[in-house]
Hints:
- By secondary structure, the chain is mainly β.
- It has two domains: 6-74, HSP40/DNAj peptide-binding domain (Sandwich); 77-135, UreE, C-terminal domain (Alpha-Beta Plaits), CATH 3.30.70.
- Helix content is 14%, strand content 40%.
- It contains two helices and ten strands.
- The protein has a six-stranded mixed β-sheet, with no helix packed on it. A four-stranded antiparallel β-sheet has the order 8-9-7-10.
- The longest helix is centred in the middle third of the chain and has 13 residues, at 87-99.
- It is elongated.
- The relative contact order is 0.21.
Amino acid sequence: MTKHPVATRLLSAGEFDGQSDDEITLDETERHRRRMVMTSDSGQSFLLDLPKAQLLIEGDVLALSDGTFVKVRAKTEPLLKVSADSPQHLLKLAWQIGNRHLAAQLCDDHILIRRDHVIEHMLVGLGAQIEQVEQPFNSEGGAYHAHGHQHD
């Protein structure tokens, strides 16, 4: 059995000022992990072994036991950009999204969610403006889905 280097430390982009040795590009679901074997973009396998599950954010760096550093990249995903006529309307839409336990990224003037034609239809019926976009997705942490470390 091959022994993989182990990533037990996660550094935020602000904590790491060096050059990474490799990168790993993952979608939002793949970035919410605690323990699993992962493969970097260059094909290096390593074991992610964090104390608790957390969302790895674009720019985070995994410090491996062999002395290498692997930078986390957020994969572009098909999303819906949900906008509204007013902040109050956007809050009502956010409540509807949250009531359905959907992962969401809250921005100043819009909400990003994964594309889902049923949810899109519901939101349009509630007066939302919807735009299909493709970009990295960083859902909000919550009581059961925390990031686990600070980001600026």
